[in-house]
Write a structure and sequence with these properties.
The chain has 694 residues and is an alpha/beta fold. The protein has 6 domains: 107 residues, no CATH class; 148 residues, no CATH class; 91 residues, no CATH class; 33 residues, no CATH class; 210 residues, von Willebrand factor, type A domain (Rossmann fold), CATH 3.40.50.410; 41 residues, no CATH class. It has 25 helices and 19 strands. An 8-stranded mixed β-sheet has the order 9-10-16-15-14-17-18-19. Strands 2-4-3 form a 3-stranded mixed β-sheet, covered by helices on one side. Strand 18, helix 24 and strand 19 form a beta-alpha-beta unit. The chain is globular, with a radius of gyration of 30 Å.
């Protein structure tokens, strides 16, 4: 083992690493002196993490250095690393003060870590994510907060639970909290303005605590009817019965109005008992809910317009159709409060796609009913717009201040060996359609090649195949019958499989094409990408596979952009051709957030085989944030691993001559290809897809 570094040697290293926050009164000498008492392995550990934390904040790195020597004396190597990650997560979520506080309170972290029965959010989050995913309704995210609460889109849960001596019981509290927070949206807690009701009281904080307790009792009763297993766990861990004065909240018909009425009656006389799974009412819920309502109304209008085009009026209609949608709802029999509904268009029953069902279900949760103005189709509109001011300032945070048009994605920091939570802000917008002359010219230029591609794609379609020796079928298998007659002559029984039937192999595949729209694609590369997409779409229309096309680009973590060109349910028409023509070079190639977003979209498609095909001209790159080089490659690699875990097969088609240096690390040795001539790209893309799906 190498000899420990001296205080002088450490001082030089610390002067270099912490220089921006050092001054004549705040020098590295005291830090170096304290670290000189550690062994060389511990010194290297501290210097490594100072360098890593520097990339986030120099002051945070200084606070770590100041606490490191004493902390390492109490924490083992693994616990010290967990302490550092916990502090950096706190910095990412809540800022410098909170991150520095975690570094200063290492003794508190040590005491908490010593509880073997405790359960941490980081430890249990993978299980909770699967659990929450199984709950009906809208998609929900999980985040850490000091107390349990929800804004109806994110479930905020405590970082650690150690209420019971049995670890399994502490895990159960996490599940109970998650289902209670989910139930606020499902059972209409926010259909009333709870914040205003509490603010009208002399002590709003007391009113909020009482109302949260009453709503918790009401929701527990609903949950007990839907999840009897969780109900038994709640009864066991509660340790007592609810106050008899709250008995009305257990009724199947109880609403948030009953909780508000109970608040009126018991405000002065009721003191809520302490429960292991208490939650608070999130003050920002109304803003999040309003933004979601506006977004979902718009999306529903666009989806209904598409549905209207798919269901033209019957030719026998006596009068011109009004194009009016209506809904007939009925309460389902599964006791979970979910409404069954029938969608009608001009009095005719229509089957809504999954997107419309999900939007209507979400609106029913928020509003309790679907107003008539939500059922008006809007031609071509309804998509989210950019928040230009937020893009310019970068002041977007996952816990408030945005208009609901942004998605937040984690980013992998390979030096931390940990995710930076909600680090990237991504927006999804439509490509501005251009003149369709480009598509017309491409079709004319490549007419023979397109015809050849169509013929080769036709060969991929499921062909009729004659299956012999079947127990059921359409015709007699004479070969099997002759052999059976021979068996009869020898005293054996006649076999059962004497028929033939035709079988058509069906393709169950969805492909999403992710197109690089970074500034480096300007010129020939951009033309080749657009020509590739036109030719590919022409061929895929013959094949009948479900496919979507999205572009991606961005500048810094605050402006990751996804551009809709063709969604899975969009028809390949003049609009899509014009969007392809409108693909233009934009900014940089921050790939991780784009892959995570498109993985989410592709994961929602019901298909046996799912492909994520990237068309790119270079490696992951960005203007700043240290994304260039290994950091960007490692984040992209982690995003692709996440796609693999979701059952998605990624593949990359590139024209970058240096691709051999990094693509095998990202996609594996067999899941990428280099097209060394840009002019060949249009033909190669379709040919590669044919080989991938054959």
């Amino acid at each position: 083992m190498n000899a420990p570094l001296s205080a002088a040697e450490l001082g030089k290293r610390l002067d270099y690493l912490l220089g921006p926050v050092l001054s004549s009164r705040r020098t590295a000498a005291p830090l170096a002196q304290a670290l000189s008492a550690l062994d060389r392995q511990q010194q290297d550990f501290v210097l490594h993490w100072i360098e890593v934390i520097d990339r986030s904040n120099y002051e945070l790195a200084y606070q770590f250095a100041a606490a490191a020597a004493e902390a390492l004396g109490q924490l083992g190597a693994s616990s010290a690393e967990a302490w550092i990650i916990h502090a950096m997560d706190a910095y990412d979520r809540e800022g410098l003060f909170r991150g520095s506080e975690v570094f200063r309170q290492f003794d508190l972290f040590r005491r908490q870590a010593a509880d073997s029965h405790a359960v941490t959010f980081a430890e249990y989050a993978p299980v909770l994510e699967l659990f929450v995913c199984g709950l009906a309704g809208r998609r929900l995210k999980l985040e850490i907060a000091d107390e349990a609460k929800t804004d109806t889109e994110t479930l905020f849960l405590p970082p650690r639970i150690a209420l019971f001596p049995d670890k399994a019981d502490n895990c159960a509290v996490y599940r109970i909290l998650a289902v209670l927070l989910w139930a606020q949206g499902r059972y209409g807690s926010w259909q009333a303005d709870l914040g205003a009701a509490c603010a009208a009281r002399p002590d709003p904080a007391r009113a909020a605590a009482l109302l949260a307790h009453f709503e918790g009792l009401r929701l527990e009763a609903r949950i007990a009817r839907l999840f009897p297993g969780i109900a038994r766990t709640m009864a066991r861990l509660r340790g007592g019965e609810p106050d008899p004065r709250c008995a009305g909240l257990v009724s199947a018909n109880a609403t948030v109005g009953d909780s508000l009425a109970l608040l009126d009656r018991l405000y002065d006389s009721f003191n809520p008992p302490a429960l292991p799974w208490s939650f608070s009412l999130h003050p920002g819920t109304n803003a999040v809910r309003s933004a979601r309502l506006a977004r979902e109304r718009s999306e529903l209008a666009a989806a209904l317009a598409a549905l209207m085009r798919q269901h033209p009026p019957p030719e026998s209609a006596a009068a011109a159709p009004e194009g009016r949608f209506s809904i007939e709802t009925g309460q389902s029999a599964d006791a979970d409060g979910a409404a069954e509904f029938e969608l009608r268009l001009d009095g005719r029953s229509v089957t809504p796609p999954a997107e419309v069902v999900q939007l209507i279900d979400s609106l029913l949760q928020d509003l309790g009913e679907i107003p008539d103005d939500c059922l008006q189709a809007a031609g071509g509109g309804g998509y989210r717009e950019k928040d230009e001011d937020a893009e310019q300032t970068g002041d977007i945070t996952p816990d408030g201040g945005h208009d609901g048009s942004a998605y937040f994605y984690d980013e992998w920091d390979y030096k931390r060996r940990h995710y930076r939570k909600n680090w990237c802000v991504l927006r999804e917008t439509d490509i501005e359609p251009a003149d369709d002359g480009f598509a017309v010219a491409t079709l004319a230029r490549y007419r023979p090649q397109i015809a050849q591609l169509k013929r080769s794609f036709e060969a991929l379609r499921g062909e009729d195949r004659l299956l012999k020796r079947q127990s059921g079928g359409d015709d007699i298998d004479f070969d099997a019958l002759v052999e059976g007659c021979v068996d009869l002559k020898t005293g054996m029984e006649l076999p059962e499989r004497l028929l033939t039937r035709r079988h058509k192999a069906e393709r169950n595949l969805a492909a999403l094409f992710m197109v690089d729209m970074s500034g480096s694609t300007k010129g020939w590369v951009n033309d080749a990408e657009r020509e590739s997409l036109v030719m590919l779409c022409e061929a895929l229309e013959v094949l009948g596979d479900r496919y979507a096309i999205y572009g991606f680009s961005g500048v810094t973590r605050q402006r990751c952009e996804i551009y809709r060109i063709k969604r899975f349910d969009d028809a390949y028409d003049d609009t899509v051709r014009r969007r392809i023509a409108g693909i233009t070079p934009r900014d940089y190639t921050r790939m991780g957030a784009a892959i995570r977003h498109l993985t989410t979209l592709l994961d929602a498609v019901d298909a046996r085989t799912k492909l994520l095909v990237t068309l790119s001209d270079g490696k992951p790159d960005d203007y700043s944030d240290h994304y260039r080089g290994k950091y960007g490659i490692e984040d992209t690699r982690q995003a692709l691993i996440e796609a693999h875990h979701a059952g998605i097969k990624p593949f990359c088609i590139t024209i970058d001559q240096e691709a051999r240096d990094y693509l095998p690390q990202l996609y594996g040795p067999a899941n990428w290809t280099l097209v060394d001539n840009v002019e060949r790209l249009p033909l190669k893309v379709a040919d590669i897809y044919r080989r991938l799906t054959a």
